[in-house]
């Protein structure tokens, strides 16, 4: 169990945080942000990804927003413990982001789309706060996973567990993915409805059913 896991009630959200823990460097590279860029993470949860991006890219500043006050408190405590200066966390509604237009070079969200009542509205907000030619990145598990990818995901999320057999781990991962994962075409549809026209789908890491939809304003 990772620190702060009790803050998250969704098996899918916990699954993605476990899976992403080993993928943050790959996600960070694919964001392609320049020095001095301002990055916004929407629905940041406990802030693990943001803190890793900040550490890997000392020239950027990352702001994480989440509607859950417990997540924000935990993220701020972790930030202070790690003494990370180029990152901040605050409460914010994903459907009504508390920022003006053209405030960020990059907007980001990971494993959150299925929890938004109106994904198009949130992605539109992510677009609104972007500068012209800014980039939005959405990272999710692919609902069209292969069986091999599912087994790899189960192994990646339970790599050293002695109490969970490979079969039980795979069953738990399958349940979480079936309930909450999205397909690339579905996410592309949300993004187009939100006003994005320039987009690409990127495999975050070979062998795992985790993809990034990269959108340019």
Task: Provide an overview of this structure.
With 217 residues, this protein is of the alpha/beta class. The chain has a single domain, classed as 3-Layer(aba) Sandwich (Rossmann fold). It has 8 helices and 7 strands, in the order ααβαβαββαβαααββ. α2 crosses α3. The relative contact order is 0.17. The N terminus is likely disordered.
**Lateral arrangement of strands in the main beta sheet:** 3-2-1-4-5-7-6
**If you compute it from the alpha carbons, what radius of gyration comes out, rounded to the nearest whole angstrom?**
16 Å
CATH fourth-tier homologous superfamily: Vaccinia Virus protein VP39
- How many structural domains does the protein architecture include? 1
User: Overall pLDDT, averaged?
Assistant: 84
β-strand amount: 15-25%
First CA to last CA: what distance? 38 Å
Number of E-state strands: 7
* CATH fold group: Rossmann fold
Task: Summarize the entry for a quick read.
This protein has helices at residues 11-21, 24-31, 48-56, 69-82, 119-128, 147-157, 166-180, 184-193, and strands at 38-42, 61-66, 87-91, 104-110, 130-141, 198-203, 210-216. By secondary structure, the protein is α/β, with parallel strands linked by helices.
